[in-house]
Design the sequence.
């Protein structure tokens, strides 16, 4: 016996919040992942406040212009992603493909800049266990948080690439593009918090 | 489609081992938990034996710490979580919602088979070099962060962390599945405010679990980095070990406590709430009247859930926190009394002037209500920072949390097993043995944990290997022997249950689809429920879940929540 022949299929495309279940699950994932990052950011703040060793001055350690450029780049990719979602909803294959590819490339550019950032930081003597400027937790948090975020960006780039390949001149799934967009915007938003808490404050 | 169209399995492996049927997975969880319960219970027996006769030195001090740690870990994560939340939840939620299965049957199977290696790692860690983890079930650093701290901090702690990582992954998958099932897979007519309270509590429990585990994951990653990456997240400057100052500097173990208890406190409600929901359903079935205040109970659940996430600091009053912060945590914690009293009063009022049928599950349900009151009362003393500073780390705490997340959950799990056994196997468990099991479990368990409160009041501290060498611990030790004998009795009494459970599985009296004349949807399915739960069409819900009429004749005083066309 299969379920199908036992009854008419349930109307499961819609859930309680009137969104598709894929979208509901993506939101759930985003909430849990946001809590994971909140755990890191709150820990960072706590350690910084409780630290009995001097906290380094970020402006002298990092090139703030470069970090601002990184932030600007990632936020730009959010804009192009929004364009891709709009184009996919309008069934404009050409524009959707263009913007998806553009977002992927900007994402890759961000990862490249992060690699430069890491190699500078490591070159200056920063390690997971300590750094030349002060509290060892400073560099430990740097590697852990930006590493974690970078992994998210990398996964996002892969998702975007898959979505791009799925979107052909004859086939387009606005729902999939929107899901990828939700994830991408979330990853960008996390960066804004990391930028604010880790670099600016 | 959220529910995949999977057909009934035919091979033995697909039917009983790698099954995607929620009922089989539920039973797999329950049987795994029953096995782990024997291990965890045996550890309790060993702990009691050691602290009652410390001069016999049955175990070494290092192994004693491992016993305490692993008893807590196994009981919280591998017994109560598995039996009550994952096991019974899997079995009940789709049946009570009128669904064919969970929203993601494959994910469900995956979550069970993720927790099996976790159980294996926990058991194996007893025999590795240095023994099992010894930093307590809370895994506080620096004991857990320095592999060389105590013997159990080495490989044992690593295996503990791996087991917990697998458990968290499994539990998160399970939680997402519950949420998706409740939101998406309800039968026609089953609006949220028509769901049985059992389902509501499983939903709340899943929401809390999904929200509170991620920060613990962050903490676990940082702990791993401290142990194996040389970082100092949880290790302060100037820590001396083996007459050498360690290289770590700038961290604080308090951070771990915050992250741990941000999970740890909601986790209590993850475990307790389903017990309360089940108790509501059992009471409705045997008091033969609608539960009192269904809506207020649902609202109270939401308030409890919210408050449970902002009170974690009450586990940390003695850490030297700012008194104003302590004051906040005290007030927020005491506030939980309000929604909890609503739940408790609704439970009591549900029995008011009813024609109680004293079947076996009702014994367990009424027992649960009593313990919620008793255990909750002790909580007030611990919620208030001023009294907690005296009670902290004493047997008062041990008695309190065992009443709440030990006895409440165990009683409601047993009640649920006796109640839904017919739905699992088409037979009932022996009633005489069930009542005997109840009295021989209930009396010793409640008595022993109540006496622990008194021990705590006289100053007996927990986790001590040998109290007898401290003069100031002498008054608290007077009750130790009585408590130990009660522990042995409660442990031995479970043999009655195991015999009854497995004997009735094959030889119990056969019953029909609805042996208790209960209203909720699962009783409209055949006993045992087949693959897909209803052989024909799914039931259509046309009323609230507890439509009992106290004024009607004995056998026609109920209307099922749904009609199977």
Sequence:
């Amino acid at each position: 016996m299969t379920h199908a022949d036992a009854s008419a299929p349930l109307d499961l495309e819609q859930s309680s919040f009137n969104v598709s279940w894929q979208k509901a699950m993506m939101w759930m994932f985003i909430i849990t992942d946001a809590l994971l990052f909140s755990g890191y950011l709150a820990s960072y703040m706590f350690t910084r406040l409780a630290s009995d060793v001097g906290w380094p001055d970020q402006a002298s350690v990092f090139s703030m212009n470069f970090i601002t450029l990184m932030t600007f780049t990632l936020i730009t990719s959010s804009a192009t992603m929004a364009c891709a979602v709009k184009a996919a909803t309008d069934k404009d294959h050409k524009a959707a493909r263009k913007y998806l590819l553009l977002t992927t490339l900007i994402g890759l550019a961000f990862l490249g800049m992060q690699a430069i950032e890491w190699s500078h930081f490591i070159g200056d003597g920063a390690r997971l266990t300590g750094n030349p400027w002060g509290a060892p937790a400073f560099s430990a948090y740097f590697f852990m948080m930006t590493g974690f975020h970078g992994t998210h960006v990398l996964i996002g780039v892969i998702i975007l690439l898959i979505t791009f390949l799925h979107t052909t001149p004859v086939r387009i799934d606005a729902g999939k593009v929107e899901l990828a967009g939700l994830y991408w915007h979330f990853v960008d938003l996390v960066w804004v918090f990391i930028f604010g808490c880790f670099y600016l404050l | 489609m959220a529910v995949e169209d999977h057909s009934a399995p035919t091979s033995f492996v697909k039917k009983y081992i790698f099954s995607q049927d929620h009922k089989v997975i539920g039973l797999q969880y329950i049987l795994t938990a029953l096995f782990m319960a024997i291990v965890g219970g045996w550890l309790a027996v060993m702990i009691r034996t050691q602290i009652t006769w410390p001069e016999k030195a049955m175990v070494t001090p290092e192994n004693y710490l491992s016993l305490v740690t692993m008893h807590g870990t196994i009981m919280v994560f591998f017994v109560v979580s598995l039996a009550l939340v994952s096991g019974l939840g899997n079995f009940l939620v789709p049946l009570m919602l009128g669904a064919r299965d969970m929203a993601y049957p494959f994910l469900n199977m995956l979550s069970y088979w993720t927790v099996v290696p976790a159980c294996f790692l926990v058991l194996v860690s007893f025999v590795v070099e240095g023994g099992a983890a010894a930093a307590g079930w809370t895994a506080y650093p620096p004991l857990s962060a320095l592999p060389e701290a105590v013997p159990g901090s080495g490989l044992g702690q690593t295996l503990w962390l791996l087991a917990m990582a697998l458990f968290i992954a499994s539990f998160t998958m399970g939680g997402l599945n519950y949420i998706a099932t409740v939101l998406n897979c309800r039968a026609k007519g089953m609006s949220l405010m028509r769901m049985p309270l059992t389902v509501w509590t499983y939903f709340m429990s899943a929401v809390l679990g999904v929200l509170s585990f991620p920060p613990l994951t962050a903490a676990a990653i940082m702990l791993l980095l401290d142990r194996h990456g040389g970082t100092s997240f949880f290790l302060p400057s100037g820590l001396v070990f083996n007459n050498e100052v360690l290289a770590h500097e700038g961290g604080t173990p308090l951070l771990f406590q915050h992250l741990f208890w941000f999970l740890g406190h909601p986790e209590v409600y993850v475990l307790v709430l389903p017990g309360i929901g089940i108790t509501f359903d059992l009471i409705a079935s045997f008091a033969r009247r609608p539960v009192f205040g269904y809506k207020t109970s649902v609202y109270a659940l939401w308030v409890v859930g919210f408050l449970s996430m902002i009170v974690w600091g009450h586990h940390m009053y003695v850490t030297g926190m700012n008194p104003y912060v302590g004051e906040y945590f005290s007030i927020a914690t005491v506030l939980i009394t309000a929604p909890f009293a609503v739940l408790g009063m609704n439970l009591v009022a549900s029995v008011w002037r009813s024609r109680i049928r004293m079947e076996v599950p009702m014994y367990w349900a009424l027992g649960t209500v009593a313990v919620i009151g008793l255990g909750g009362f002790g909580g007030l003393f611990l919620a208030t920072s001023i009294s907690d500073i005296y009670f902290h780390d004493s047997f008062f705490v041990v008695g309190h949390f065992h009443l709440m997340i030990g006895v409440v959950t165990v009683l409601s799990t047993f009640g649920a097993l006796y109640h839904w056994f017919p739905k699992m196997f088409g037979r009932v468990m022996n009633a005489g043995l069930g009542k005997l099991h109840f009295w021989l479990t209930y009396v010793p368990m409640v008595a022993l944990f109540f006496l622990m409160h008194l021990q705590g009041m006289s100053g007996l501290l927990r986790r001590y290997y040998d109290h007898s060498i401290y003069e100031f611990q002498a008054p608290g030790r007077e009750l130790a022997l009585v408590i130990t004998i009660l522990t042995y009795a409660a442990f031995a009494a479970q043999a009655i249950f195991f015999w009854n459970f497995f004997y009735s599985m094959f030889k119990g009296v056969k019953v029909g689809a609805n042996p208790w004349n209960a209203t909720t949807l699962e009783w409209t399915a055949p006993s045992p429920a087949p693959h897909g739960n209803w052989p024909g069409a799914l039931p259509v819900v046309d009323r609230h879940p507890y439509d009992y009429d106290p004024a009607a004749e004995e056998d026609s005083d109920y209307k099922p929540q749904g009609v199977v066309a």
Q: What stands out?
A: Confidence is low (pLDDT under 50) at residues 1-14 of chain A. The longest helix of chain A spans residues 93-123.
